[in-house]
Design a protein that fits this description.
Distance between the termini: 7 Å
CATH superfamily of the largest domain: MFS general substrate transporter like domains
CATH class of the largest domain: Mainly Alpha
Largest sheet: none
Structural class: mainly alpha
Order of helices and strands: HHHHHHHHHHHHHHHHHHHHHHH
């Protein structure tokens, strides 16, 4: 029972890309890809041009933490009906439209604030609202994608979605920077009106997603009407979410002072500051999650929250996964999900700084890395979708892991060569093609693991787990480079891919030996 998709010939695969559902996922992908860089690179450059200190600018990256914890409110999105939106469009389309409108509102709010004049706390609030709204859109689009087509189309839907996502990133990354420059803002001459017009333009482009949502059809999956119309359960879910999140944030924030002392002590004991910081941050996250769990338990014990509601919303989706795959295979799959992207993400955090250190200019990085590289990722994504249909998901998953590790070694070669445009094009081509291929296979793999009865929650857990550990470790990539140097660092990221390869081989062996008919095919 390998979670692979039915094999077909390449001609049929290419014809399948013309299907309306595949095309719709391209436009929904654009809608999902636009907000991300408006929180990261584009916003960072805006703040820098406005004269904000670098240390302050980096704090804004935390606004996107919602992407790594979206599983927490996924049950709300899955079960909570929205007045007007759900009744008019259905549960999935209603939530997609609502999240898109919230994204547009958030971008507009950011556009209305001048970081050089207004309080940065307002800009931070707007950025957090954008991250939260965007992560919510991702939850619903993922659920819609899985529910709207059978498994034989999931690889193509994933490829189309990735392509759209990357196009959205080009628009909000390179496109936003070009617009801001065109409207008259640069490092030497900051113009708030230029950035305001740019962000308003980005909000307007989100209409692509809005129009798509209004045109597409609601999936045929029937949602439990009793759950959708139980107001008591809706209020309980909202209370649980609000108090659990408050508890998590409070514990994480209060542990900041202690963490500094603990990091210093561990760094001395381990003689490795990045490793010590990584352990401490994992500990803080663990304490925050534990406090949220204890808060939920207290609410249940006091009768404020029904245990059956918590079980149905959070526990049952997890239990379902372990029931379908068994304890051993389930933990193996979770390890694979948590580590599959680790080498790419950890390297990606420091990559732009690496290019600058080699002497490449910002325009060169923008044209080669941001634009050409994203195009190569799109090509790789479509290749991955076709190859998955032809050879099965596990083989392409393994191929993606091998290529991701090997392409990281090319960065070692680039570090030796130094400033060399042809070499940069070669490295970016190989790295982004392999990343696109691996991502398409991996999304199809995650989709195949998801039970349609718990689509939103299970996929949100998988996609959150996919980025959580790599993002935490990636935050210390700069310190790792300072300790190891670029060449050894790139070797280390390549070696991070070896356990992933072994996990895929091991998981595939389990699938071949198993005869569980409930597993995805």
């Amino acid at each position: 029972m390998t979670p692979s998709l039915p094999k077909t010939n390449c001609l049929h695969s290419l014809q399948a890309f013309s299907q309306p559902r595949v095309i719709a996922m391209l436009f929904l992908g654009i809608s999902a890809g636009i907000p991300l860089l408006l929180i990261f690179s584009s916003l960072g450059l805006w703040l820098r041009e406005a004269g904000i200190e670098r240390a302050t600018v980096t704090y804004f990256s935390w606004a996107a933490l919602g992407y790594s914890f979206k599983f927490v409110w996924a049950p709300l999105v899955d079960k909570l009906p929205l007045p007007f939106f759900t009744t008019s469009l259905g549960q999935r389309r209603g939530w997609i439209l609502f999240s898109q409108l919230m994204i547009m509102l958030s971008i507009g709010l950011m556009a209305s604030l001048d970081p050089a004049q207004d309080a940065l706390t307002l800009m931070a609030f707007a950025a957090i609202l954008l991250g939260f709204s965007s992560a919510t859109q991702d939850i619903v689009i993922d659920a819609y994608r899985i529910e709207s087509a059978d498994s034989n189309l999931q690889a193509l839907l994933s490829s189309s979605y990735i392509a759209g996502y990357r196009i959205g990133m080009i628009i909000s990354g390179a496109g936003a920077l070009l617009l801001a420059s065109y409207f008259g803002s640069n490092l030497e001459s900051y113009s708030y009106t230029a950035w305001q017009s740019t962000y308003y333009s980005m909000a307007a482009i989100m209409l692509i997603g809005v129009i798509t949502t209004l045109v597409i059809r609601e999936p045929n999956t029937q949602h439990d009407d009793a759950v959708l119309h139980n107001r008591s359960e809706h209020l309980q879910l909202l209370l649980l979410f609000a108090l659990a999140i408050t508890s998590f944030i409070a514990v994480y924030a209060m542990s900041f002072g202690i963490s500094i002392t603990l990091k210093s002590a561990l760094a001395s004991a381990l003689s490795n500051k990045p490793l010590a910081s990584f352990f401490v941050e994992c500990l803080r996250l663990g304490l925050g999650i534990l406090s949220a769990g204890l808060c939920a338990k207290l609410l249940i014990s006091k009768g404020l929250i029904s245990y059956s509601l918590v079980s149905q919303s959070y526990i049952e989706p997890i239990n379902d996964f372990f029931r379908r795959y068994g304890m051993s295979l389930a933990w193996l799959l979770l390890a694979l999900i948590g580590l599959y992207r680790i080498s790419d993400i950890v390297l990606g955090v420091i990559s732009n700084i690496f290019y600058l250190d080699l002497g490449f200019s910002k325009p060169e990085i923008a044209s080669v890395v941001k634009t050409f590289g994203l195009i190569m990722t799109i090509v790789g994504g479509f290749m991955g979708g076709i190859l998955v249909l032809r050879f099965g998901v596990m083989r392409i998953l393994l191929l993606g892991a091998v290529l991701s590790a090997l392409t990281n070694l090319l960065f070692m070669l680039l570090a030796n060569v130094g400033y060399n445009m042809p070499m940069l094009y070669l490295v970016i081509s190989a790295d982004n093609l392999s990343a696109g291929l691996a991502s398409a296979a991996f999304i199809a793999f995650l989709s195949s693991l998801t039970n349609v009865s718990f689509t939103a929650v299970q996929y949100a857990i998988f996609s959150s787990l996919m980025t959580l550990l790599p993002k935490i470790l990636g935050g210390y990539s700069g310190s790792m480079v300072e300790s190891l140097g670029y060449e050894q660092f790139f070797m280390a990221t390549a070696l991070m891919g070896l356990p992933v390869i072994l996990l895929i081989i091991w998981a595939n062996k389990y699938f071949r030996l198993s005869t569980n008919s409930n597993s995805p095919t």
